[in-house]
Amino acid sequence: GTRFCHSRHRERGSAARRRCSSPLRIRAAPSKMAASTTEESVGIECYANKAEGFNAILKERFTDFVVNEIDRGGNVVHLTSLDPVVDDEIEEAERLKRSKLGAAPPQGIELAAAASEPEPEATGEDTGTDERKASAEAAAAKKNDDVAPPTDAGPTVEELTRRNFAIAEFAKIAGETDAERLRAFVETPGVLTPSSSSSGAPAPRPLVLSTSNDKDYRASLHAFFGIHFPQLSTDTIEPPGEGEGTGPVRPGSNKPLMCVRVRPVKQKGNGRGGGGQKRSREDGAWGGHQRWPSDQPHYLEFVLCKENKDTGDAIGVLSRILHVKPRQFGFAGTKDRRGVTSQLVTVHKVRAKRLAKLTLHGMKLGNFRYVDRSLGLGDLKGNLFTLTLRGLERGSKETVMKAVNALKSSGFVNYFGLQRFGTHKIPTHAIGSALLRGSWSEVVDLIMQPRDADKDDVAEARKVYKETRDAAAALKLMPRFCLAERGLLEGLVKCKGDIIGAINAIPRPTRMMYVHAYQSYMFNRAASERVRLHGADRAVEGDLIFDDRGDIYQSDDEDNNDVMFANVREVTAEEAARGTYKITDVLLPLPGFKVIYPERVKVLYEDICKAEGVLLEGCAHPIKEYSFGFLTGAYRRLLVKPDKLEFEFQSYSDPKADLTETDMSRILRVPNIVSTDGEEKDEKFLALRLSLALPTSSYATMALRELMKLSTSKQTHRDATLSRLENAT
Q1: For the chain, which has fewer Cβ within 10 Å, the N-terminal or C-terminal residue?
Q2: Residues designated as active site
Q3: Which class for 606: exposed (0-12), middle (13-18), buried (19 or more C-beta within 10 A)?
Q4: Contact 595, 417 (CB under 8 A)
Q5: CB 562 within 8 A of CB 568
Q6: Contact 634, 595 (CB under 8 A)
């Protein structure tokens, strides 16, 4: 929890307000070796209004910071159901489809095969790729429950009838010769049902069918086995020998001769647990091993509700459990760790029931539906925040209400919050500065430098590297969750003497995060100078605005939360005099080669870059991606006004009580034990519950800073909580 209650913060807030009315001053960049990152060190200095602030504790409990994503359509994302009902109708339709295909003539099978495996153009590429896909999709057209269990008993009369019908159907597709070979194959012990290796009988060999250069024909074979013998797996291989095709051959085709191989079921007793039935990495496919329905959208969308967990960590957990690569997940933006958040996530070809049965710590998944496209960063309109500020002083209601109304009227300076820069003594923008300067050794030292808040294993790994410069030894100690550090150490081990190659072994999103953090730092400095020079109530001559007669573009190279405007221009003297544009229309540039700079902003940016040894234009070194001459740049609004702002007071006696109902508590049916404050309440404590909607990339902590006129640093939070606990005892 955090209380903004110390006098030095009051004094610093007053000093900041005084500086906001002083002339333009260019200062040297603050030292990047401070004990921890402070607001002033990253350019957060001014306020948009002069309302009196107040003391409160933020994030004392996870439920004090609730975030619900707002999707592109303006709908607030909530978790309301955990049931995978979306699968029921699809499974029923698939069962009906399979039953029809099972009794249909071979033409129906050929049509189904053609639909799942279209003939590609002759490009010289591997022609087996699509065919292997068709094989995998057809490998199990029935549920796992339909697969016959291991048994030594012979087939029943019903099974023999189905088998004879299937072989007769196969003869119509592949001819009598291969049909008889198939009959002998399936009658071999251990082919359709696994036999124990202790029986002494040799394991049956796979059946290799006739060769053919006709992909439609081979795909129809895969489809046949998926329908009639789902326990057998098939794949496409090169023929064992050379010569003309022994199966159907398409005249004039340049496709190679290939053949379908049919494998027996896995055998029991192969030395692994579970009777040799090793869990497949395709367990996320439809029905575990079933083909994905051809008319089904390829992406499952669901609501992820998490508590005290980063979005990336949550995706990592799901990735490991489902055996799905993290890049198969899509989401519109990362959400705060310390809080309860709900957001949309997509995953490629994983069924809803597979997710619904997971038991997860601190996460719930639901509201499943299938969609045609994956979510990408920036695919949201904003976020709805429900914030609880605890520990208000009795008698402060009037002050609080005035502050809330002032925030609603003036908005707040749209700073990048401290989360953007980290809270350790090595802020992310310091690493970004070193990258932009091409100071590669400094980049390594900053990333690997010990930090006070490190866990023991991380601290030990950093210590080993600092004292010995032995990257291999440090890598053995560095935990896997330290992606940047491990990537760098792995690069140092593999790219001996190539320090740039080692840095590039860090995941690219992390590397670019450092550079984007430096852009954010420059924006914050420019925003403070703009407010200090001209206030925060009107647009003035020379401000940048978006001319809405043009088109809007999204920058692919920049932070996807920042909108790139194509037609941006300066406000004229006449427009400023008429008040044509509001202060919320004013934009500031994030450095890059496509943006334009107002004269005063360019002077400021050049001074900042000069002090740091960074080039504002062009490239200081050959690695282009770490230079403003390569980065596209973007524009960001100077001020933001919150939407849908509502508030209410709450009285409470238990400091550990949850004061806000969340999606998590509703879905788990946790009773709401605290009611809205009334006149006759006699509880010990008072809290403010504030609800507001903000556009994407705007920080709720900066809105709270404006509201309370106090620092949002973690240290302030800790001091406030400790102070309250001491007073309570």
Answers
A1: C
A2: 336
A3: middle
A4: no
A5: no
A6: yes
